[in-house]
Every structure is written in structure tokens, then in C-alpha cells.
Design brief:
This protein has eight helices and seven strands; from the N terminus they run αααβββααβαβαββα. The protein is of the alpha/beta class. The chain has a single domain, classed as Glutaredoxin (3-Layer(aba) Sandwich). β4, α6 and β5 form a beta-alpha-beta unit. The longest helix is centred in the N-terminal third of the chain and has 16 residues. The protein is globular.
Length: 230
């Protein structure tokens, strides 16, 4: 896991800025815009090591695997009143794309607009769900000055619901649900810091790599492009 941590640091710190990427090409915005890390001095702290270890542990013990039945933990709607299960958002044989993340995760927020474009493009053949999980960089944990919001660790469901409302403002057209306070969805899918999945007919068809380096909207597009031509 320490090697994994070092790889994250290397890949994140050597990425070009969004301005550099935009000036290098006149093409439409990329699915995976680069993420700039400006507080590299915080990469080797006790809180950062604890966070990386937590993510590794969830990944190792997750129950979601390609080809296996998809876990079906409870999630909560934004009004806080209704509890559903993840597979309740699937419709028939249509693929269900799951996007796990939080507002304090810079790569997730940087690619949220790309995810919305993808959802709009493939809305005729697939369903999409954002799942708000525990904060990647809470203000009372592994702090990142690149985080879009200053949000502490969730102490109760209302904290998580309030944080998810901020994501709703940035992604008004995507269905959004909230993980339970025992982090059942994050644990089942090894979703921390952020992660992508495709579920179809209750099976895991695609499992993205662990974020940040494995979090790639472009892989979703490739899968959906191939699916559309079948």
C-alpha cells in the first residue's frame, strides 16, 4: 500500500494543469481532465497515510468483482426519508453506471461535468447514479487545499445529506443518493476515494480502478460505445 501511495503522489504531481491541457488542443473537453495538486507538502502526514490505508483495506475486502453478483446495499434519497437499494435504480436490462465520490475529492469534482456529459449522451441506453460517500479530504482529516468545499467528517446522516446537496447543485440532472452512515456502499464496492462501476442484470460488468489514478470517465465511454454497437 505504501507503493500505491507513492504512485498516487507521482501521478498527481506530474499532471499538467487544465489550462495547459486546453491550450494543447482545440478538441472538445476531455473525459478525464488533468488534476493539479498544489499542497504536496501534505502528502506524507499521519492523516494521509491513514486515509490511503483505509482505501486499500476497503478495496481488499470489497464484495464487488467483475462477473459476480452486484452488492445491493441501502442508500438514502436526499430528502432523508426514503431508503432504497442501489439496484432499485436499474431498469430492466439497461446498464446502471455507478459513480461514487464526495465534494472534497478534487479528481471526482474535476470530472463531474464530464460524467454529466456522458450521462446526457447515453441516456437512451443506460441509467446513471451518483452515490455520495464519506469525505475524501475532510477539513478535520487529510486536508486538501484543492478540495472544492470545506466539509468536516460526517457525524450524522444530516451532515452527509447537507454535503450531498452541494453535489446536487453541481450535478442537477444526475440521480443522486447517499451512502448510509455505516458506509455500506463504500465498503461493498471499495469506493473510497472515488470509483466507477457498471452493473447490468445484477452483475458487475465493469469495475474502475481505485481513485484517483484509476478513476477514468473515458473508460465508461469506451464501454458504452461498444455496448451501443452490439
Amino acid at each position: 500500500w505504501l507503493l500505491d501511495f507513492l504512485c498516487i503522489r507521482k501521478k498527481m504531481l506530474t499532471m499538467p494543469t487544465a489550462e495547459e491541457a486546453a491550450s494543447a488542443s482545440e478538441e472538445p473537453p476531455p473525459d478525464d481532465p488533468p488534476v493539479c495538486v498544489s499542497d504536496s507538502n501534505r502528502m506524507f502526514t499521519l492523516e494521509s497515510l491513514k486515509a490511503v490505508w483505509h482505501g486499500q483495506k476497503l478495496d481488499f475486502f470489497k464484495s464487488a468483482h467483475v462477473g459476480s453478483l452486484a452488492p445491493n446495499p441501502e442508500v438514502i434519497q436526499l430528502d432523508g426519508q426514503k431508503r432504497l437499494r442501489i439496484l432499485d435504480f436499474a431498469r430492466g436490462k439497461r446498464p446502471l453506471i455507478l459513480n461514487f465520490g464526495s465534494c472534497t475529492c478534487p479528481p471526482f469534482m474535476a470530472r463531474l461535468r464530464s460524467f454529466q456529459r456522458l450521462a446526457a449522451h447515453f441516456v437512451d441506453i443506460a441509467d446513471f447514479l451518483l452515490v455520495y460517500i464519506e469525505e475524501a479530504h475532510p477539513s478535520d482529516g487529510w486536508v486538501s487545499s484543492d478540495a472544492a468545499y470545506n466539509i468536516p467528517k460526517h457525524q450524522c446522516l444530516q451532515d452527509r445529506l447537507r454535503a450531498a446537496q452541494l453535489m446536487r447543485e453541481g450535478a442537477p440532472d444526475c440521480p443522486l443518493a447517499v451512502d448510509t452512515m455505516d458506509n455500506a456502499s463504500s465498503a461493498a464496492y471499495g469506493a473510497y476515494f472515488e470509483r466507477l462501476y457498471i452493473i447490468q442484470e445484477e452483475k458487475v460488468m465493469y469495475q474502475g480502478g481505485r481513485g484517483p489514478e484509476g478513476y477514468k470517465i473515458s473508460e465508461l465511454r469506451s464501454w458504452l460505445d461498444q455496448y451501443k454497437t452490439r
